[in-house]
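LAB NOTEBOOK - FOLDING QUEUE
OPERATOR: T.R.
BATCH SIZE: 2
PURPOSE: Compare the predicted structure-token outputs for two unrelated chains run back to back under identical settings.
PRIORITY: normal
REVIEWER: second-year student, initials M.K.

ITEM 1
FIELD SEQUENCE / FIELD STRUCTURE:
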Amino acid sequence: MQGKITESTIKKLQAATKPYELVDSQLKGFLIRVQPSGVKTYYFTYRNGAGKRVRIKIGKVGSVSVAQARDLADAHSAAVVQGKDVQSDKKDEKKKAAELADRTLDKFLEKHYGPWAVLNRKTGQKTIDTIKRNFSEFFPKPLHEISLLSVERWRTDRLKANIKPATINRDVTTLRGLLTKAVEWEVLDDHPLRKLKPLQVDSSPKVRYLSASEETRLMDALTAREEGIRAGRDRGNRFRQERGYELLPNLREVVYADRLMPMVVLSLKTGMRQGELFDLCWKDVSFDESMITVRAEINKSNKTRHIPLSQTAKQCLQYWQQQAGEVEPDSLIFPAKDGARLDNVKRSWTQVLKDAKISGFRWHDMRHDFASKLVMKGAPLNTVRDLCGHADLSTTLRYAHLAPEHKAEAIALLG
């Protein structure tokens, strides 16, 4: 049977008692085979150099579109015209893929996925570290032996260890991403976690932000920390002076003793992510326009966004720039002591929270604090979304209950 293979003609093809084929009238060698079970499969046929008729399976209807199947058949046809034995090449590729599939998870991560992730993902190294930290028990296994059941057991053990479902879901996502690439690279025929559903989590988690009292205690603790650093420098310089050593810069003559306080102020007043803050350069700040630009390459959503600077945030940055002296536009605003990119400020941040007697508050919660305070002041949710750089409005909606007009409207319903 012959005719043009299209979406409409495929729908008309009914299962028969015996298999039959529809040969495309436009592209030589392109056909679709219909089984008695109703399964329809695209194929490409040709004669190789020995004159033998060869058939290549392209894919099943439903998993491959007509356009995709025709493109693949056309590519095979072009290769045949050039004198290539497509089926033989395909067998060689499958053999290589099978050899790769026999490699263990740790080898695939080390040789293939790891290097790719570092080059193509902003958080590539973090992803690699997460896989190494959480899935070492799977490392000796070949990829095709990582089963749905084994991952389910792993999740159960984690739950028993009181690991939060949201954390488990994030960890599984990293492994799922690796296996997805293995399928794309034809190392695996099918994704072993395709049917794995994420653990249920609270879709509207409680938003953590600072109360007025907590914010006051946080600033007091930061101020006390600054005074402690200055006092330490004073003692150090007295020691150096007594022994005739060169004195270190006097911290009484600058606004900030170190970078932590301006970083906290900027986080609270702009809602920037910690990673964005670490990557922020002086060229991203416009004092004339009172604006910070979060470049796409340092933004989680890969989209540039602009954040207006409040007077407090602007003045904070101006003071910090004065302390930095002559700075290059491409230089980091908050570099590490050696001038490289900061890795973390966990130790000093943890101590400040302890001194302020604030619990259950992470650095990232300053971003929630920024959004929450905006909403409570009456800022439209869409504006908050733009300022925070949320990829989806559903992320911003977690703050909707804080809007005063929403509360008023709800109470008004009672009459």
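ITEM 2
FIELD SEQUENCE / FIELD STRUCTURE:
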Amino acid sequence: MTALFLTILCSTSIALILKQNDSRDGEPVVLLAGNYFVAALIGGLFLISEEVLYFSYQTLFFGLFLGFLFVISFFAFARAVRAAGTAMATVSSRLSVFVPVFLSILFFREMPSIWQIFGFLFTGITIILFYFSLRNHREKRLGWPDYLYLIGVLAGIGINDFCMKVFHHWHGEKEKPLFLFIIFLSAFLYTLSFVLVKRIQSDHGTKMLGGLLGIPNIFSSYFILSALAVLPGIIVYPVTNIGIILLTSFAAFLIWKEPVNKLGRWSLLTGIVSIVLLTIK
């Protein structure tokens, strides 16, 4: 459970740094490039600290693919925010939890208990309440391209999470440092190429914030792999997502004095119930 808690802590840090960048109108692509650069450096340190270096072409190509998917998911989220608003994009990213849960049941036969089924139900209720607590009253009428971006966010993040579980069952712990290094190095190169082609400029503060973002980013991936080594995916994914909602809401209240409305308070309550139900053995 320690690895699961550290995953939530790192993922919450990512959400708060992204919010800080948004509040200062920083260029998100440059933030992303700085993030992946620092994450790749830390991944390289993990790699050279290993006494024995394990390498396989499967890990190499799977890491290259997942690094590309990381970047695509971010761009889908950015377009979803622009097209449908922050609330809809955020709820799509949280609804992505049902993708790895379903795939874990389908491919790894991780059958939920009756308590966990009720936990999934409360997870869905929490995410819905969370959306309505964030929603701006000045709603925009969505067209079908907007929904495609939202579906892209849901599918992209969900598949990213499930790929972590696939890798754990495929190669376990021994190639984890190599896998993380390849993911973040390739993601940095993909993003840097985009920045150079588009000639995107940004301020020094955004670059520094991106570098800071890279620290919890790689450790969130590191800890979720560690959590999946000891816990089934049908527990890890929903508990992580609900934990992020709870901790981010609390931190936003402390840092930015963001009030939590009535629906927000209900979402926090159902989130706590969800975590309790999901972790009952």
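REVIEWER COMMENT (ITEM 2): The CA atoms of residues 93 and 154 lie 5 Å apart.
FOLLOW-UP: none requested
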